[in-house]
Amino acid sequence: MPKITFPRMGESWRTFKMLLEDLGNEVVPPPRPSKRTLDLGVRYSPEFACFPLKILMGTYLETIEMGADTIVTTGGVGPCRAGEYAMLHHNILKDLGHEVRMIVFEPPRLYPFNFIKNVWALNRARVSIRGIIALVKRAWRKLQALDNAEKLSHIVRPREINRGTTSRVYRKVLEWIDQAYTTEQIIEAEAAALEALRSVPQNPEREVLKVGIVGEIYVLLEPASNLEIEETLGNLGVEVERSMFLTGWTRDNTWNETIEGLTVKEAAAPYLPELVGGHGRDSIGNTVLYAKRGFDGVIQLAPFTCIPEIVARTILTRVSRDHDIPVLTFFLDEQTGKAGMTTRLEAFVDLLSRKKRASRRIVTLTG
Amino acid sequence: MTVKVGIPSALLYFLYYPMWQAFFNELGIQVVTSGRTTKNILDKGVREALADACVPIKLFFGHVMAIKDKVDYLFIPRVVCLNRKTVYCPKFLGLPDMIRHAVENVPPIIDVRIDTRKGCLPLLKAYVEIGSFFGAGRRASVRAYFKARKTHMRYNKLLRKGYSPDEAMSILKNPGIKPVRQPGANLRFAVLGYPYAIYDSFISVNLLGKLRRLGVSVLTAENIHPFLLALQKNCNLPKRLFWTFSDMALKAAHFLFKQGRIDGVLHLTAFGCGPDSLLNKFIELEAKKHRNIPFMTLMIDEHTGEAGMTTRLEAFVDMVRRRKEALACRR
């Protein structure tokens, strides 16, 4: 029986593991990217490939050691590099002498046949089509539960009284959601998780800054790649809203474009009317939306040498000036250190709170 | 006074300038270029562009800075796709927006979107749209387009014969005079990479000239007939590379390795170039299968020095030459 693995993106692996096991596969869950993952990835990837490619390379090598022989991943139709990842990973792994199978999911809208073929290959339990749909629905519900818990943790963390409580509770509730199997259990676990997070002792008086996070999807979703920026910001007393969650992204990119997706596109249109691949346009659109919603600042996260985000960064300078919203960019790679990042974040948060206080003073003077 | 349109001499300039010039001239519009790259232009670009951008993009910024005050319009078309299959690097797609929003006081930018994947006669329509910017009628634009296309084909033919863009452009201007080529090359190298890096002799630290001086004749992807490249299909990959230039370079590499009539392959890449990070690995993996043809990667950025480049090239050429002589003796 083949042993299947897949890329790790935040906590979503819990869902994919459940789904693949339900379809009758043996799963090797990808471990959390560690120093060793990075070392392996950096050693065997091209030097200037972007950071996610290196982390995935390392993850694949680690899971292959653990016995995986089939990799499920996504493709893409460009012009972002991520669409070619699977091909390069496969060739490098072959060059290293690992005979693995790659199952690459292309956008089902454009390649329906590829989609059906892949689902068939993964469906070892020969579940009926109706059964598959039910399984996917349940997995989707679980993904939503995971995302909702994470979103709430971002709101609670800056207001907690004892530092670290939220993170501790969050880690605990993840296990609850992970254990839930049927849809009812998932809903129940989600409710319990949200309740547990809400009951973290909080200080409602505390002045909290609001910062939006935009950028490339992988470094946004995998905390190990962005050095847990959300936790760091939360501990600095900042409420974080991330522009991208797996549940939101999949909806925008599989069947229909939601109203939400359209508004991001519309918001970006005066600055960048063209799709430049990756999430370059979304970064601009979301920054505009955050500014309109009165956020205090925006942080852009991108892998080093990420082409779409470089285009976006060049234009964000103007967006920042037009909408009077400070933007801080991190180009992340294996050299990025946590201490340096924290220092820059502290300085940024300091600037934001000063700006906020200054603007309030003006309001009280005039009002 | 006639309208002046500025075309920065960087990026797509090396492949499409003769066509664009012919088109604008036919409509009675004066074309101004920023000329050859100089230290000054590069410095301006480095100062103006984002530090994380690749050097060709920085150079483009520099060229824009050099001409923006001398012209009424800047011609920076948003070239998305020209062959119905591959697109250009994301930086090309966002180029007009990057210039518009990052450079102060730019003249109006003509950023007509050119994408041949949609509609019928998309190229012709795009050129009619360009013409309409200057009040040219449909008929005049169409006539100018066909004339420009003829020039483009003549230009491509010259490139295929082995002339560099500079030489080919001067031949187009004065058909009588052909540049003399010094004989005596006994090695043949393929130089793969993007036209805007290879042919810009300033940024490539005169790579082609140096090779010629070392007695090496050079073959680039532009010298190979597109038909031969198209025969390479997807180069044994499940999917083609998305980007036009990278796709061409990879196909050229496969073709040349298979044909085996070259003595060495150089891949010229710019620091931080996104597509190249993948392309280079694919060429390297292919080169591993053809151990009789040495392969080297050269990386350039705005700090590349003349001396370092010369040393590496000399060492590589010496190595290849000695190897060739040794093999000849053994036979």
What can you tell me about this protein's structure?
The complex is a heterodimer of chains A (367) and B (331). Chain A is α/β, with parallel strands linked by helices and 367 residues long. Chain A folds into 3 domains: 125 residues, Rossmann fold, CATH 3.40.50.11890; 78 residues; 160 residues, Rossmann fold, CATH 3.40.50.11900. Helices cover 56% and strands 11% of the residues of chain A. Chain A is built from 15 helices and 8 strands. In chain A, the strands form 2 sheets. In chain A, strands 2-1-3-4 form a 4-stranded parallel beta sheet, covered by helices on one side. Chain A has a 4-stranded parallel beta sheet with strand order 6-5-7-8, with helices on both faces. In chain A, α2 crosses α3, α7 packs antiparallel against α8 and α12 packs across α13. The radius of gyration of chain A is 21 Å and the shape is globular. The N and C termini of chain A lie far apart (72 Å). Chain B is α/β, with parallel strands linked by helices. Chain B has 2 domains: 165 residues, no CATH class; 146 residues, Rossmann fold (3-Layer(aba) Sandwich), CATH 3.40.50. In chain B, 50% of the residues lie in helices and 13% in strands. Chain B is built from 14 helices and 10 strands. A 4-stranded parallel beta sheet of chain B has the order 2-1-3-5, with helices on one face. A 4-stranded parallel beta sheet of chain B has the order 8-7-9-10, with helices on both faces. Chain B has a two-stranded parallel sheet with strand order 4-6. In chain B, α1 links the parallel β1 and β2. Chain B is globular, with a radius of gyration of 20 Å. The termini of chain B are far apart. The interface between A and B is large, with 43 and 37 residues. Chain B: It holds the Pfam family DUF2229. Chain B: InterPro entries: CoA_activase_DUF2229, Dehydratase_Activator_Redct, FldB/FldC_alpha/beta.
